[in-house]
Amino acid sequence: MAHPDLAAEPTIRVSDLSLSYPAHAGGREFAAVEGVSFDVPRGDVVALLGESGSGKSTLARFLAGRAADAGEKAARIKLTGGAASVFDVPMRRLSGRTRTRLTAYVGHLAQDAGATLTPELNVGDILFEPIAERSKNFDREELGERIAEMMDIVALPLAKLQEYPYELSKGQRQRVAVMRSLMLDPALLIADEPTLGVDANNRPRIVELLRWYRARTNATMLLISHDIGMLEALVRDVLVMQEGRLVGHGEINEIFRHADHGYVQRLAQALRATAYDEIAEE
Ligand SMILES: Nc1ncnc2c1ncn2[C@@H]1O[C@H](COP(=O)(O)OP(=O)(O)OP(=O)(O)O)[C@@H](O)[C@H]1O
Fold it and tell me: Whole-model pTM?
């Protein structure tokens, strides 16, 4: 059985990778990612950009080891070509045990995670849950201090710990979801639009939380985000996808300065105008 090697270099290795959704409802198998290759070196923060439907979430979910997580069969992601490894664990045909081992180190913030917080739990329990599931013997006090620090960074009053998801605004729920994705101290964080649905005043709070986390842990991060504040504060390299393919890869300023691909050029222009909401919806 492959054991995750946290010192693996690079942390993520993707080679000519193709991913599909199975055929369903009389339709054909759908190729969401086609022939993509890139590495994410250990400790780097890389952004995955691209218009809606370009395959970003599919790739993120697959690399986070959550390809088979979806309830319905039709939403399970299948590797149809090439290879990928995370912490030197090959992602082809992951056994249940290997997957559990791997996902213990890989935080995944799913798309619109704030909307799927457990409705029966208050915020405090939502945050404690990942740790309580792993071990009964955790230091509640130490963890409480960490939670208080995170709440402060994202500007949520401690009284919110007693509230339930339905009592929070959309942006507050999203902030809780981002905090939750960090609770197990992941050595790799894969986050799908961490600031989506958060108002402009509070987006920098999430950026700050991720910066704080990185300074504390030096974790590797793959972020799907068109948030210019986040890109500027955290990201060195970007990957740009279009229709399942990688159409740009490199240092953020370089790639936008010398963009030779039509979509990358348009994206660069839009980002300069900081119209990120529109890009995400394009
Ligand atoms: N369960 C599924 N079954 C079939 N096709 C799917 C499924 N989920 C996503 N797709 C398709 O796969 C393609 C890639 O979707 P994906 O969500 O990865 O794109 P994305 O770049 O993350 O887009 P967005 O920014 O809108 O989330 C899209 O064409 C989408 O319609």
Answer: 0.92
Q: How far is the CA of 156 from the centre of ligand 1 (A)?
A: 32
CA-nearest residue, atom 12 of ligand 1: 32
Fold of the domain spanning 12-281: Rossmann fold (3.40.50)
How buried is residue 179: exposed, middle or buried, by Cβ count under 10 Å (0-12/13-18/19+)? buried
ipTM entry? 0.95
Task: With beta carbons less than 8 A apart as the criterion, state whether 263 and 247 touch.
Answer: yes
Q: Tell me the three state secondary structure of residue 116.
A: helix
Backbone phi, psi, residue 277, to 5°: -60, -40
**Cβ neighbours of residue 26 under 8 Å, at least 6 residues apart?**
none
Ligand 1 pocket mutation pick from 30, 34, 63 by most atoms within 8 angstroms of CB: 30
Nearest atom (ligand 1) to Cα of 59: 18
**Does the beta carbon of 74 sit less than 6 angstroms from any atom of ligand 1?**
yes
Q: Where are the domains of the chain?
A: 12-281
Helix locations, the chain, DSSP H: 56-63, 96-103, 123-134, 140-153, 170-181, 203-217, 228-234, 252-257, 262-272, 276-281
Q: How far is the CA of 84 from the centre of ligand 1 (A)?
A: 19
Q: Which atom of ligand 1 is nearest to the CA of 111?
A: 27
pLDDT tens for each residue of 164-212: 999 999 999 999 999 999 999 999 999 999 998 899 899 999 999 999 9
DSSP-derived 3-state class of residue 76:
coil
User: Is there an atom of ligand 1 within 6 Å of 30 CB?
Assistant: yes
Q: Which atom of ligand 1 is nearest to the CA of 27?
A: 4
Residue 187 half-sphere exposure toward CB, CA atoms < 13 A: 19
